[in-house]
Amino acid sequence: MLIFFLWTFVGGLQGGNFYSADRHAGDQKAMQAIEDTASRSNLIDTLPAPPRWSETALAHRIIGRSMPDVTEQAVHEKKLAALGSVGSAIVLVSLKVFLAAITGSLGILSEALHSILDLVAAVITYLSVRVADKPADADHLYGHGKIESFSAFVETGLLLLTAIYIIWEAFQRLLFRTAHIRPSITAIVILALSMGIDLVRSRALGRVAKKYPSEALEADALHFSTDVWSTFVVVLGITGVWLGQRFNLPWLGMLDAFAALAVAGVIIWIGSRLGRRTIDALLDVAPEGLREQITNAVDETEGVLQTERVRVRRAGQRYFVDVTISVPRTASLEQAHAASDAIEKRIEKIVPADVVVHVEPRARSDEPLFETIRAIAQRRGLAIHELSAHFYEGRLFVEMHLEVDENSSLREAHRRATELEDEIRAAAGPETRVNIHIEPLGLRIGGAKELKDLSSSVQHFLNSLPSEYKELVDCHEVHVRSVDHRILVSCHCAMDGNLPITEVHDITGVLENRVKELFPQIYRVTIHPEPVEDS
After folding, report:
1. What are the C-alpha distances in Å from 39 to residues 35, 84, 210, 413?
2. How far apart (Å, rounded) are the C-alpha atoms in residues 255 and 98?
3. CA 41/CA 209 separation, integer angstroms
4. Pairwise CA distance, residues 496 & 503, whole Å
5. DSSP secondary-structure letter at 140?
């Protein structure tokens, strides 16, 4: 009855539904698609090995999006799976110890020892699953996911110790002493039943481990999947001994020791694979190909010049990715932040991860001179405008306006301008001539008085100029203000939207000069050009 109950429970765990069907009907379809994809591979090959990380990541992301309570659901199912594994291990240990006692078979004894260690491993798995899903805290900033890897590492050590004992005992029986074995059909039937329990339990654990990526549960599933084969080898060995005694073939009695050696070989093979994977996880070895895929995704992000470094580590079912990128040094802080956000979203489509992006400003290989000058000024915390450059008498001539604190003295402002000139010449060439106009940085917001009569006169004058300048259609929104004893003019001028901006700039410059010629009291004219259709 106990075996029947356990079989039913584990089978229910394998295919059971732990949340309301009418509430999550759509989620079931998504999960079924994931599980169908995952079931194409053999259970032994479904540990979170480097080549298989993408399917696990895809499943995690789909579940995370479709199930709002996925964290609680995952913890609940993982605990039930681990608890079911403990119950199954108790039943199998009881059966195999009983059989080893009544038959004297080394093969069955080795399987009993293997199952005892599986029971210890199942308990460790249950405890690690309870701890691994705890959120990060002040002492564990990356969470508790590594406990699953450590649990799998401990299980590996236990498996290898078991294998060493089995090998020693097998050679003792083969070379130095003879053990009396009492095989029976009942023992063979019970071992076959144990194989069935192992098979169902390994599938149940593997199913939950794929659904909610868990290294500890996958290690446990792997153990029980290998138990199926090791028990099968023991069945062959005990069957051979039974046949040898029935038909008087003494040499068949050695099959039990050879079956034990075969079990030890399986344990060592599985243990070495599991040990390598857990050591890789504990040493933060990145899954094969993941770094390259992340690098390619980052390189394709708008605003990124180059991916300089990518580091990946894993803790449980979560990845932590550190990325260093280079962006144009003239990019604003907002542009760099936008690139970082885009990178985080790209990486999260590849693997579920916490992403940290470090930005390095770099000069582009084809950086224009004006961009270089602006980068120099920006690095020095200086505001410049009206930047222009031309060749004069065989030399480059650069001009600009430099804005400085209005409370600065001439000596201080000139020092900052000279330092800027020296750095521009270092970048553009020692023969470059630089002329900098110094003006106060506008910080105060002063009051203004509208000069309506002058506004009407300026507007009338500008609208009389289209006969001279065919590009000009009309001028509107003309405002003339008196600010700090200076008269300022601003207006909108409509022009053909197909005109190149360089030609538009030349026309607005001419119009500004014409206004200042007719109205010399005006200090500054600012024209906003716009297409006719937007005016």
Report:
1. 6, 21, 9, 73
2. 21
3. 14
4. 11
5. -
Distance CA 143, CA 266 (A): 34
Question: What letter would DSSP give residue 367?
Answer: -
* Chain length of the chain: 535
Q: Are strands 486-495 and 472-483 parallel, antiparallel or unpaired?
A: antiparallel
Residue with tokens 């207006």: 491
What confidence tens digit (pLDDT) does each residue in 39-89 have?
Answer: 333 333 333 333 333 433 433 333 333 333 445 676 677 677 777 778 877
Q: Is the pLDDT of residue 463 over 70?
A: yes
Closest CA to 492 of 471, 473, 475: 475
Tokens read off for 105: 């078979």
* Type of residue numbered 319: Y
Over residues 155-204, the pLDDT tens digits come to 777 778 777 877 887 787 777 766 555 666 777 788 788 888 878 877 88
Under 8 Å CB-to-CB from 501, ≥6 apart: which residues? none
Closest C-alpha to 402, from 430, 421, 389: 421
- pLDDT tens digit string along 481-499? 998 788 999 999 999 999 9
Round to whole Å and give the CA distance between 312 and 322: 7
Torsion angle of the four alpha carbons 22, 24, 29, 33, in this order, in degrees rounded to the nearest 10:
-150
| Segments in 53-145 forming alpha helices (H) | 53-66, 70-103, 106-132
User: Which position has the higher pLDDT, 109 or 213?
Assistant: 109
User: What is the amino acid identity at position 318?
Assistant: R
Confirm if 476 and 491 have CB atoms less than 8 A apart. Answer: yes
C-alpha dist (Å) from residue 312 to 54, 137, 294, 351, 495 = 14, 21, 10, 11, 55
d(CA 93, CA 236): 20
Write the DSSP string, 231-260: HHHHHHHHHHHHHHHHTT-GGGGGHHHHHH
Main-chain dihedrals φ then ψ at residue 300, nearest 5 degrees = -85, 0
Question: Which residue in the block uniquely carries the two structure tokens 């001419």?
Answer: 510
Measured CA to CA, the distance from residue 15 to residue 99 in angstroms comes to 31
Provide mean pLDDT across the span 439-461.
85
Q: Checking DSSP bridges between strand 318-328 and strand 353-362, what pairing results, if any?
A: parallel
DSSP code string of 182-201: ---HHHHHHHHHHHHHHHHH
Q: What pTM, to 2 d.p., does this model score?
A: 0.48
The DSSP symbol for 218 reads H
pLDDT in tens, 93-108: 888 788 778 777 766 7
**CB of 524 within 8 A of CB of 488?**
yes
**CA 239 vs CA 107, 109, 115: distances in Å:** 11, 15, 20
Supply the pLDDT for residue 50. 36
R_g of the chain computed on alpha carbons: 39
Give backbone dihedrals phi and psi of 52, rounded to 5 degrees, phi first. Answer: -110, 10
CB 84 within 8 A of CB 9: yes
